Amino acid sequence: MMKKWKWMFMAVAICSMLTVNVSAQDFPRGPLNFMNPFNPGGEVDIAARAMQPYLEKNLGVPLVINYLPGAGGALCWSKLAAAKPDGYTIGGFSIPHIILQPMFMKDVTFKTDDFVILSIVEYTPIGLAVKKDFQVNTVKEFIEYAKANPGKISCGGVGKFTGHHFATLQFMQLTGTKVNYVTFTGTSQVQTALMGGHIDAAFTNSTMMVSSKDQIKVLAIGAQQRMGQLPGVPTFEELGLKMYPRIARGAMGPKAIPADIQKRLEKTFLETTSKPEFKAKMEAAGFVPQVMGIADSHKFLEEEAKELKKLIQEFDLLSPAKK
Amino acid sequence: MDILTHIALGAQVVFQPINLLFCFLGVLMGTLVGVLPGLGPTAAIALLLPNTFHVAPVSAIIMLAGIYYGAMYGGSTTSILVNIPGEAASVITCLDGHQMALKGRAGPALGIAAFGSFIAGTVSVIGLMLVAPPLAKFALAFGPPEYFSLMLLGIILLIYLASGSILKALMMFVFGLLLSTIGMDAISGTQRLTFGILELSDGVGLIPAIMGLFGVAEVIANVEEEMKRSIISAKVKNLLPNLQDWRDSFWPIIRGSFLGFFIGILPGPAPVIAAFSSYAIEKKISKHPEKFGTGVIEGVAGPESANNAATGGAFIPLFTLGIPVNSVIAILLGAFMIHGIQPGPMIISKYPDLFWGTVMSMYLGNAMLLVLNLPLIGLWIQVLKVPYPILFPLILLFCLIGVFSLNYSQVEVALMIGFGVFGYLARKFQFEMAPLVLAIVIGPMMENNLRLSLVISQGSPMIFITHPISAVFIFVTLTLLISPFVPWISKRRKKLQEKVEGEEI
Question: Within a domain: residue A316?
Fold first, then answer.
């Protein structure tokens, strides 16, 4: 009986493949495929699941979330870049990953401008947290301890050439310290390791800090101003460190999607992300919700890329990482 | 009374109509694959996993778990009636079960297998409820070095318990580790052994591997063997065992339940080992060991209870540490991740509805199985009569569709067929599959935890000795590895093996 559902699903999928040459008036005719570059339960997934009911209602067709995790997102993005540009296949992304990976990972087969960013939906500031029984309570003490014990603090984060990796490098350059960056494969592993006291510290997402603030000590957050969900946590700026590390996420597709279909999708995302109840839901989980269309998103992407390149040159940030 | 509120929570989850339905579907399909030769629970769960993508995680896990323990019930039916074990764990049941059937006592044999399984299932569910939550609290003390040492111990234990040659098991394990390194390096992002194939940058898929090794290989092997099917076609009656049967079976069932549960926690094909051990124990302590093999009810009651209890025990490392101890649990681990649940120490506190719901569903599922198995035995006999020339191509077809529908990738279909051929050949040369599959699953975790440990310790391997929990695991591992070289132990092991093998025939 399960098999029957499968056949029906496949039939629907085949029908949707037949509707290729469509204009925006009759788009979409079949289900949309949303490619998720990470494991479920991560930030991309939480946001996608929160948007799903609104998007489905707005478009009038189902949105199927498919997981293609691997290689810090590069596997999914390589496939998305090569997908049929008909608007039926879109996917999630993370900035700065899609900027940094093509620059530094030699095995990656996509380029940052292979895509049209339909909408940036949210970002999460990256902050610094330490394990509950770690002897430092402030960023100042953290820096002092790190200077006294160079390279001894184990500091977790997700992947290399990612937001967390970059934030750690930036922090080390600004403070003249050296910590031991420990690469995990997902935020949840960092969370368990920090709560269990197996690593001393972590540069990680605001979402994780909100969800486990009682089991860890959050020292600082990389936002412009303090976050509503973490009122007692100072920003790096307050502490004299001009760093605003963050990871922005949303939906994108292959660049060659016809312009009118791009517009239709953009409208759907904008109408979803501007809903007050959606914003409230995202804020409660520790996200900073955004309402950005194609033009705004690309402006954001360009500015972020420019900023990253400047930092890379200024501090020669990635040369120690490449070793 | 914390536990009562938890049980209430679990019951609340299970008694939702949708979950009742999925539990029923799970045990029904489990019984079916248990009855069918050529398709075991591992391949069946792998096959059905993609169909659960669109339902709530707890419903999916309830169904998949149902297939697992349901298959243990179904396997006994074929062993008793046809003398073909539908399941490896039911091999031992053939000995006395089929003899009972030949003597016209198929009914009580089937009945005691079902009741024994029910009692054992109950014991293991209660054990799971009592043992898992405290263990989960302890699990946060497990960091990368502890995980690595534990997995090392687990895999060595599995190899040690392997029924055949230790050397062959070790070879399969190392080959599996090699396969597990395929894909993009999780830390540096370098492509390893992918030969430019994009699909491989994610590593060798577990599902194509399992469907190949267990589904395709099994079908090929079955086609080759000419199977004699002596279906007991006489109407099976008197399913309820009489008072004397109960008297003979009571203690074997109780012993089998506890034995099975604790063996279940250990890595390896727990239900199989549990069933064999139970049979060996019952024979040893019996007043009339010479009668074993001629159709004594203890020889059915003990092993059937043990293999069922083992399925419950196997869930403990999954729920507390996120470590799979056998290939079925490995797929369930994959299912957790597909549904957005990161397995590990926080699973019980973070998803109480999932844990308690699953546990309660196992209880309910065991009751459903009792109902399914007793009155529906006639139906299962009909299923057994499906001619193999129809059955086997159908299973192959399902495997092909199942793997393709995962990611619509031809590479994965090719992988599955490759694994199928490899699995068939390996079986011919008496290599075991379990170490290979576990290595594919555990390999990346072991590598990751090894590297994390060494990064944290800044390169010093002493971290595995200075952490006390890890040191204990390393010590036991070394002891196990050295023991084959101690003549006294290796002699005993060989003796035991001969005994078990002798009984198999």
Answer: no
Domain boundary at A226, A245, A264, which? A245
**Rounded-to-integer distance, Cα B17 and Cα B22, Å:** 9
Contacts 24+ apart (CB under 8 A), B285-291: none
d(CA B316, CA A207): 29
Category of B486 on φ-ψ map: left (φ > 0), alpha (ψ -120 to 50) or beta? beta
Of the candidates B480, B347, B468, B369, the one whose C-alpha atom is nearest the C-alpha of residue B122 is B369
DSSP secondary structure letters along A231-274: TTPPBTTTTT-----EEEEEEEEETTS-HHHHHHHHHHHHHHHT
Nearest to A40 among B187, B339, B398 (CB): B339
Q: pTM of the predicted model, to two decimals?
A: 0.76
Q: Is A75 touching B (CB cutoff 8 A)? A: yes
A219 plus A168 within the same structural domain: yes
CB distance from B456 to chain A under 8 Å? yes
HSE, side-chain direction, 13 A CA sphere, residue B295: 16
Distance of alpha carbon B396 from alpha carbon B215, whole angstroms: 7
DSSP class of B198: G
Of the candidates B8, B465, B144, B75, the one whose C-alpha atom is nearest the C-alpha of residue B303 is B75
d(CA B447, CA B136): 23
Q: Where are the alpha helices (DSSP H) in A74-199?
A: 74-81, 97-104, 139-148, 163-175, 187-195
DSSP string, A7-75: HHHHHHHHHHHH--S--GGG---S-EEEEESS-TTSHHHHHHHHHHHHHHHHHSS-EEEEE---GGGHH
Cα B306 to Cα A252: distance, rounded to the nearest angstrom: 53
Same domain, A119 and A253: yes
Q: Which of A40, A123, A38, A33 lies closest to A74, judged by CA?
A: A38
| A169 and A93 fall within a common domain | no
Q: How many domains does chain B have?
A: 1
Instruction: Check CB contact under 8 Å for B337 and A40.
Output: yes
Cβ partners under 8 Å of residue A11, min gap 6: none
Distances B39 to A199, B86, B219, B332, B489 between C-alpha atoms, Å: 44, 8, 8, 17, 37
On whether residue A298 sits in a domain, the answer given is yes
B28 Cα to chain A: minimum distance (Å) = 12
- Residue-wise pLDDT tens digits, A162-215: 889 889 989 998 999 999 999 887 777 788 889 888 999 999 999 888 888 888
**B332 vs B73: CA distance, rounded Å:** 19
Residue A46 within any structural domain of the chain: yes
The answer to whether residue A193 neighbours chain B at the CB level (below 8 Å) is: yes
- Look up tokens 């769960």; give the residue: B45
Chain B CB contacts of A6 under 8 Å are 50-51, 401, 405
Nearest to B403 by CA among B392, B417, B389: B417
Question: By CB neighbour count within 10 A (0-12 exposed, 13-18 middle, 19+ buried), where does A282 fall?
Answer: buried
- Domain harbouring A235, CATH code: 3.40.190.10
Among A245, A268, A298, where does a domain finish? A245
> In sequence order, what are the residues at sequence separation of 6 or more whose Cβ sits closer than 8 angstroms to the Cβ of residue A259?
none
Using the Cβ of A270 and the Cβ atoms of chain B, whether some distance falls under 8 Å is answered with: no
In a shared domain, residues A133 and A230: yes
Full domain range(s) for residue B441 = 2-504
| CATH value at residue A48 | 3.40.190.150
- Count Cβ atoms below 10 Å from residue B309 Cβ, excluding itself: 36
ipTM summary value: 0.74
Contact B183 A109 (CB under 8 A): no
Predicted pLDDT of residue B505 = 31
Quick: pLDDT tens for B441-450.
Answer: 788 888 988 9
What domain range is A92 assigned to? 31-123+247-311
Q: Give residue B502's pLDDT.
A: 44
